[in-house]
Amino acid sequence: MKRYILALDLKDDPALIQEYEQWHRAENGWPEITQSIQEAGITGMEIYRTGNRLVMIMDTDDRFSFEKKEDMDVNNPVVQQWEQLMWKFQQPLPWAKEGQKWVLMNRIYHLQAESISTDK
């Protein structure tokens, strides 16, 4: 299992941010999108927001690759429809490559509980 953390900005508009969050409530999700995510080898996904910045945590199995997911998405008309809808709310990070939405984050710190000693 691998974990990936990605970031993206929303347009800084409270009404759009509220609508974006409504689309991501369980009752408003598109089953085809969930199916596409799972078929790509993504076993868990969470999205967090602060202000207009989003952070996505993805847990994946051995089937997952970004290249495979991109190829699947390009060839899935429902995913393309979803992505067009979401682009209404999203804006690329200033350092994103052209056409890139979510940007992979680099881990700069990791605390491992088993390495913490309580001895003084």
UniProtKB/TrEMBL annotation:
GO molecular function, one term: racemase and epimerase activity, acting on carbohydrates and derivatives
Superkingdom field: Bacteria
Protein name listed in UniProt: L-fucose mutarotase
Native source organism of the sequence: Filimonas zeae
